[in-house]
Amino acid sequence: MVRGLLILGSRGQLGTELTALSRATGWATTAVDIDECDITDPEAVDHWLAVSRAETVINCAAWTRVDAAETEADSAYRANATGPRVLAARCEAAEALLTHVSTDFVFDGSASAPIDEEAAPHPLSVYGASKLAGEEEVRHGCRRHQVVRTAWLYGQGGPNFVLTVLRLAGERDRLRVVADQHGTPTWTGHLAPAILRLAELGAPGTYHLTNSGSTTWHGFAEAVLAEAGVERPVDGLTTAEYPTPAHRPAYSVLDNRAWRLLGEPPLPPWQDGLRAYIAELSAAGRLSARH
Predict the structure, then answer these.
(1) pLDDT for 208-250, tens place per residue?
(2) Nearest to 199 by CA among 13, 21, 64, 44
(3) What angle separates helix 161-169 from helix 217-228, to the nearest 10 degrees?
């Protein structure tokens, strides 16, 4: 049976991956970005729900400029909380499943073991607080909902950490990267199939979906360079040595327990995702760092 799917935020890294994969796997996909559908506009949302005949809506639209959110809080909340509130109400009226993408930034980093879906959120930044507000809007406004938290995302198009590391390696003789923040790099090529599977199952609730394993930004940077065949020393920094406007969680490794309890297999190790992404970049001729 052909299933109607509406993807919002379709030109971001995850939206791009979801659009291509869903169309290749039999979904009747309509994909739009903010210039076509501002998710804070109920009339625009209703229009695209009608045009797409969507039974499922995947919301990848969000404000993701973490540091800028500290000084542009209203804009961050408009995209990350008001938009999901409108979507939830319109999906409820249309009896559509709303699958909403969220973030590890809803946690404060005080954990020392992988964080499951039952852990209490406590965001440290405006970005994290706005995303948590959006989660709550979805839960309260749409009975058929799925909240999917992911972390350290990279994939088609960028910008992302992998591309930044490769660019800097082409410009500098050595790199300096934070070594005391722990998380799980997650490739859209592994995340997108899991989200589509979750939407297919239709099981409501909150889910953590990341690649398996964990590392630090420093460890991730070293792995990026090694996989790309680029030799550069990478110095480790503390968070205190690299201050940013927004506080980042020191530990945000997510336990994908709810996903496992559905009987689904773990997503592959993060190293496998990185290997596949570097191969993708190489095939596209995008590995330009000097050796």
Answers:
(1) 999 999 999 999 999 999 999 999 999 999 999 999 999 999 9
(2) 21
(3) 60
Q: What's the average model confidence in pLDDT over 161-174? A: 96
- Would you call 37 helix, strand, or coil by DSSP? coil
The pLDDT value recorded for residue 1 is 55
Cβ–Cβ < 8 Å for 13, 163: no
| Per-residue confidence (pLDDT) for residue 241, from 0 to 100 | 95
Distance between CA atoms of 180 and 237, rounded to whole angstroms? Answer: 8
What is the rounded CA–CA span in Å between residue 64 and residue 81?
13
* CA atoms within 13 Å, Cβ hemisphere of 14: 30
| Distance of alpha carbon 136 from alpha carbon 153, whole angstroms | 22
**Of 261, 262, 140, nearest to 200 (Cα)?**
262
Strands (DSSP E) along the chain, which ranges?
3-8, 27-32, 56-59, 97-103, 145-150, 153-154, 175-178, 182-183, 186-187, 205-208, 215-216, 234-237
Identity of the residue numbered 195? I
| DSSP collapsed to 3 states, 69-123 | HHCCHHHHHHHHHHHHHHHHHHHHHHCCEEEEEEEHHHCCCCCCCCECCCCCCCC
- Catalytic positions are 127
The pTM score is 0.96
For each of the domains in the chain, give its residue range(s) and CATH number, in order of start: 3-158+185-212+248-268 (3.40.50.720)
